[in-house]
Amino acid sequence: YSTASDYARFAQMLLNGGHLDGAQILGRKSVELMMSNHLTHLDPPVNEFSKGEGFGLGGYVVLDVARRGRLGSVGQFGWSGAASTYYTIDPKEQLVALLMMQHLPQGLPGDPPKLSVKFYNLVYQSLID
Hints:
two-stranded antiparallel ribbon, 4 helices, alpha+beta
């Protein structure tokens, strides 16, 4: 259990290569290892959830944006929680994004639609140079 603020700080630390507020929390190579695909021995090297995602240590790694079916970047890293919580770290865009809904989807009529795809698409559509 934690707060959205603490979760955002954790994600920012990963984006910073293990640094946060002037302190080295994790080693740079540990963060690289976390955010690298570890399914390279599989053919294709993707996870069961998406043909465009591999799996790092503790989260997905985007390998192919088009196959994933939502906006993002190759190398993007993140995960989703059981209660419709999502986070992503995009080193290419220097981006951290969190969505915390605290809803356990039951697949029943009346359940809200899956908002994560819309959320990620809106986040990436809002980027400007």
